[in-house]
Amino acid sequence: MSAHQLTERPARTALLDGLGRYIPIGATIALLAAMYLGGLASYDNFDNPQLVPDLFIGNAGLLIIAVGMTFVILSGGIDLSVGSVAAFSTMACAWLTVEAGVSGPLAMVLVLVLGTLSGTATGAVIHYFDVQPFIATLVGLFLYRGLTLQISSSDVSMRDVEFFGWGMERTEFGNVREGGFSLPNLSFLAFAIVIAAFIVLHYTRFGRGVYAVGGNEQSALLMGLPVARTKIGVYAISGFCAALAGVVSAFYTKSADPLRGVGLELDAIAAVVIGGTLLTGGAGFVLGTVAGVMVMGMLSTIIAFQGNLNSWWARIVVGVLLLAFILLQRVLARTGEKRST
Amino acid sequence: MTEAPAKARSANPYLKRLMWPLAVLAVLVAANVAVTGIDFLVPGVQDGRLNGAFVNILRRSAPLLIIALGMTLVIAIKGIDLSVGAVYAIGAAVACQWIEGRDESALGTVLAAVGLALAVAALIGAWNGTMVARFGIQPIVATLILMIAGRGIAQLITGGQIPNVGDASPFVELGRGAILTVPVPIWIAAAVLVALAVLTRRTALGLLLESVGGNPEASRLAGIRARGITVLVYLVCGLCAGLAGVIGAANLGSADANNGGLWIELDAILAVVIGGTALLGGRFFLLGTTIGVAIIGTLEVTIINVGLSSQWQFTAKAIVVLVVALLQSPQFRAWIARPFKRRTAAPEEAVAE
Amino acid sequence: MSDQPIVEMTGIVKDFTGVRALDGVDFTLRPGEIHAVMGENGAGKSTLIKVLTGVHGPDAGRILLDGAPVRFAGPGAAQAAGISTVYQEVNLAENLSVAENLLAGREPRLGPFINFRAVRRRARALLDDLGIDLNVAAPLSSYSIAMQQLVAIARAVNIDAKVLILDEPTSSLDRDEVAVLLGVMRRLAAEGVALVFISHFLEQVYEICDRMTVLRNGKLIGSWDTADLPENALIGHMLGREAATLEQIERVAAAHQVADEAPLLEAEGLGRKGAVAPYDLTVRRGEVVGLAGLLGSGRTETVRLIAGADRPDSGELRFDGSKVGGHNPRTATARGIAFCPENRKTEGLVADLTVAENMILAMQASRGWARQVSPGQRAELVSAFIDKLGIRPADPDLPVRNLSGGNQQKVLLARWMLIEPKLLILDEPTRGIDVGAKADIQRLVAELSADGMAVLFVSAELDEVTRLSDRIAVLRDREMIAMLETEAEMTAEHIVDAIVAGGRRD
Hints:
The structure holds three protein chains of three kinds. Chain A is mostly helical. Chain A contains 14 helices and five strands. Chain A has helices spanning 12-20, 23-42, 51-58, 60-74, 82-99, 104-128, 133-151, 185-203, 205-215, 217-222, 227-253, 264-274, 286-306, 312-340; strands at residues 6-7, 156-157, 170-173, 181-184, 255-256. The longest helix of chain A has 29 residues, at 312-340. Chain B has 15 helices and four strands. Chain B has helices at 6-11, 13-36, 53-76, 84-100, 107-133, 139-158, 173-176, 184-201, 205-214, 216-221, 226-252, 264-274, 286-305, 312-328, 330-337; strands at residues 44-46, 49-51, 178-179, 182-183. In chain B, the strands form two sheets. In chain B, strands 1-2 form a two-stranded antiparallel ribbon. A two-stranded antiparallel sheet of chain B has the order 3-4. In chain B, a hairpin with a 2-residue loop joins strand 3 and strand 4 (182-183). Chain B is globular, with a radius of gyration of 21 Å. In chain C, 54% of the residues are buried. In chain C, helix 8 (231-239) packs across helix 18 (492-504), helix 13 crosses helix 14 and helix 13 (355-367) runs parallel beside helix 15 (405-417). The longest helix of chain C is centred in the middle third of the chain and has 16 residues, at 175-190. Chain C has three domains: 7-239, 3-Layer(aba) Sandwich (Rossmann fold), CATH 3.40.50; 244-336 and 422-501, 3-Layer(aba) Sandwich (Rossmann fold), CATH 3.40.50; 350-420, no CATH class. Chain C is globular and about 75 Å long. Chains A and B meet through helix 7, helix 12 and helix 14 of A and helix 6, helix 12, helix 14 and helix 15 of B.
């Protein structure tokens, strides 16, 4: 019935703009490759097949937290409480199993439920009372650190709890002496979380809602999307991930340190941003976060290999990378604005 | 406070806003006095300097106060500076490192060290301000970069060591000395308070800050040069953080790049918010921030004095943050005010068209 | 067309912190009709729509949908009930693909997972239906605003809508795109959907609408069949006079002798793409130049270029004998150009600050932060202006948010009078304020121009413009179409005629 047929193909620049969202993650992967190749060229033993898998052992907790943080940042928020929640979860596991005599699996479930509920409550405060995420999650940062210290102000060992041995049981891939490598169960746990997060973010209504809310919350509301459920949901996921990271930390060290994970929230945020996610929300990929965590792990590895470099260089380099990625995102956003006006 | 004449109250919106924080501080002090006696409040003189629980709180809180005052100005223009803890560490590191290799008892060395530390801190502040004003990056994001990298820079300066300054150096007087029996840090913090009050209230800077923070677009149309002001404010905030680091280092006689000023940015933001300055910008209250700092300092002591373990201070702070945040939320106040009414879906603050 | 209304709103009242945005408005919508809601800025159109779609809850009155009373908790609930809306600003997620935007929240799924192949297929079918051919997998942000708008409409159509509200959907579309949109609207109406159309393009309204409802200042003026309401009657209703206002305001404009003065302001071919077509305008000292036109005619855009609030992309501006370059609000102030923007709350006042602080702001800004206006001088100036303008309550230390609209407007005027500008630009200074304050402001404008100040006066009220102005520029569709110079020409009827004629020209 309409006499007119309208056709519009994205212009060449617009097409590039569409690809623009892959530029940051591409930069991250290029960076990672460059670091690895640079390491290969500079150091003996850098070709050790265990080197890359090791990135996923020490950093398994960080990876899990960063995945949760990716949800929050994609939705346009931030979660400062994750480091404290993780420390509290480790300590709670220790207290429940060592002091209260609760079985390991039950303790784990209790801790995960608590982390999720805590995140839900935080999300509700943020959404319904319009409290800035920065402040609302600051409450959790203080609260859970305080509670951790109240349970114990010194290390608690879980070496005698059989359940916590499971996490470091290794699976071998090939013969370790002849180019194979091995991974412990906790790494697989982290991989499982990444895969689940990828599926949720890309293939469910909730996940697409996270992007929509992060892109423009007002629009999402007017489109009739469940904004409240989405915003509260991302903090619940972040709380769950932080608690799980605490459990992984219990697996990894079999002890609880009340001061562990101080500043972990910053590492997680840095990993997410270096992974190409826009800090203001709406753009990014959970697989980018994996790359971001690997970059940070690789950085420490190279510094360890170099020997004469000191650990603080890692911080400075992370800062420089953050700056580079934030400016890159800014430039991409600017070119986008120019085109649409 | 309640006897204050009604006229003065209506005439001064600033005094009115200070009532709440002052009341909280009074309750905290009263609780301490009840437990430990009037000695808590009334200082004695010992070895030519004031001594007493409350004076010690003020002395220990001086670096926090200096940072919180700078933060107040940043928050007034809708900003936030997360990097102050790292700048604190850098300021401390620069000063101590400069002195360590030189004649530490020479006044010239100390002055140069302090000057250098402040210059570096101001530079970092200006950098933050430029990122925000020129490149249009959100304050929380722009300052996050140095929050993360800053302690690495501080360690780089000290070479990973903890530089020490001997007790004989005039430098340590900045942290431990006393002038006219009053501890030097209190003098410095008071001087910063007065200086910032004069800078903002005896010039038009305060009005312009509140205008830019309250309504950036209206301010632009009124012809206010917002960019320059923004850079200036972040510069001042960096300067304050560096100064706080110098005082902290002088008090310890050393600079710990890892732990010096740890989490001080959070305490500073908390003090600003307790003092009545809204995180959304606009009106700011330097005196309110001062009271906020005193509340935080007193809170830590109170927890121990009432017989709780020192671990409770985190929990107490969490509660304070939650209560303050909720009280500032119009939605929460509306929700509390009519618990039995059906809540409407959307807050109706919007203006017609 | 059935006569049984699908939507029946009666006695709707909505207040926003002291401002009554809707005052007992009735509105009926029948299935299969296209119904225009007409009115100027602040007339209450958007508020009416937002009440209907559940964004705001009404303070009084009731809404019947299909004869049953309803009260929506939010836009989601309204959509579920079959009322969907397309807003002027594209309210979609730019960062998602076209297909996802079309189907967000209602994607076809396999178990819990979105079936993207089905999403793309449905999206393509949906767009084909409307005669639009896009790559549905591309991100929405890669298309022009016009295309995004059409996607928003396609999305609204897809939600089995009984009522479809289009709020200024055509403002960013070109002729072909408008034709597609109007075609879609006709087809939907034929299918029995009730459409609400808000647009400032009168020819589109006349082309497509069956009925019109006119609002002014939050009140219902009336509803008419399109055939019964000729264009000049419609414009008269929209811009019309309020009898009550007129009785209280004496005629204030005195005929000045200004013609022989050299021009203070000369704009030559000044324009900005998408805002206003290049125009010429001169203003002399002591002259009041009125800008008249309907909402969306480019009135505000015209003066914003002169005030330095927006950057022109063509033409040149001469002021006080010299060429103006690198124009921004700060340099404009320094030259002596003062600008009271249209929206007091978002662009004018700093709500938290006091009356005195708001007044002093421009003066202080022009002096820089280091040279404070001394407290004594400030108190003197402020109290002088509070007296002169009759600001009530006369308390300089009251937060300006506590003042009524009229008094707030006077505070803004005082802010600019303090810097003693050569040219004062007033963009709708009397909108939404009480009659007394309106008369005060009109009298003030006359006084200022008598003292030699040049004034550019934008107003949606024709009576006001004709009473105050020495000359009147008429705008339509972002173009300056006429300049009325003689006393005989400057009547409300002439302005309406000029606007109507401007529409017929092409």
